[in-house]
Amino acid sequence: MAEHPTGIPILLEPLVTRVLAPNPSPFTFTGTQSYVVGERDVAIIDPGPDSREHLAALSRAIGDRPVRAILITHHHRDHSPASRPLARMTGAPIVGAAPFAVDHADGRADAAFDRDYAPDQVLADGESVAGEGWTLTAVATPGHTSNHLAFALAETGVLFSGDHVMGWSTSIVSPPDGDMAAYMASLDKLMGRDDRVYYPGHGEAVDNPQRLVRGMLGHRKQREGQILRLLAGGDILPIGAMTAQMYGGLAPGLIPAAERSVLAHLYDLRTRGLVREEGAAWTSAA
Q: How many CB atoms lie within 10 A of CB 1?
């Protein structure tokens, strides 16, 4: 994203400034995008990782304006840790996604969690925070995580979509916190809205959100169909074998994430009575 370098505030439209954090990776694309919303007073959406460099960039973007709230879409380590030093710096409350911690045997699923995330106020679906000339309303979009929120800017038709919808990639849905049925239901929910543009946690703005969401629903249904075809006729396959056939040519470092999404599909299909577990493998329930 050469035209939007790390640490430099970019005014996207009168009420929205983007600041890119210096944490690029195969899972964060060019890095986490924090948003400064407002003119005379502001809110900060997803302040990102606890990086001295990024906090300095956010401080420059805020200037001497009061910060009314620090909003968090979800509790992953690339989105929420900087909320704590930023709250100390500005005196603003941390609001948004509910706190969540999970402990279980599979460390891959919870390694991304910000275990110290502790909001001052949890926003339920439809609840808002406001400042001078702006209102941000929580839109519950669970699936990528159980507590994921998007935030709608009522004055301009913007939706800050977090990691639920991104133009550069589909979201990882990793059980037990990630839930494929919830993720699909949240996409359906967004299809019923008329937001003008999405500003995601990673990647460029989504200028035709309805078309992208429709495509994402289709993509997930295609993955579901792939699984059902692989297991048709009584075949019994482990997740690794299914993933290898479904994601041909995937970079090795991304295979574990793909396996988690396949597992999320399998759990959803099991709930619907379409597949069943056979030890460490899966087969059709038909």
A: 16
Q: Does the predicted model carry a pTM greater than 0.70? A: yes
Contacts of 65 by beta carbon, 8 Å cutoff, 6+ apart: 38, 40, 41, 42
- Distance of alpha carbon 267 from alpha carbon 286, whole angstroms: 16
Alpha helices, H only, the chain: 52-62, 83-90, 107-110, 180-191, 209-231, 239-246, 255-271
How many whole angstroms separate alpha carbon 100 and alpha carbon 74? 9
Which sequence spans correspond to the domains of the chain? 10-207, 223-284
Count other C-beta atoms under 10 Å from residue 171's C-beta.
26
**What is the domain class of 223-284 according to CATH?**
mainly alpha
- Between CA 89 and CA 263 the distance in angstroms is 41
List of residues 6+ apart from 216 with CB closer than 8 A: 165, 170, 187
Equal CATH topology for 10-207 and 223-284: no
DSSP code of residue 36:
E
**What is the average pLDDT across 177-192?**
96
User: What class is the 10-207 domain?
Assistant: alpha beta
Beta bridge partners, 253, equal none
> Is it true that the peptide bond before 176 is cis, omega within 30 degrees of 0?
yes
What distance separates the 2 farthest-apart alpha carbons in the chain?
Answer: 66
Tens of pLDDT, residues 2-48: 456 888 999 999 999 999 999 998 888 999 999 999 999 999 999 99
* C-alpha closest to that of 174 among 118, 112, 225: 112
Report whether 82 contacts 47 (CB < 8 A): yes
Q: For residues 136 and 255, give the distance between their C-alpha atoms in angstroms, rounded to a whole number.
A: 36
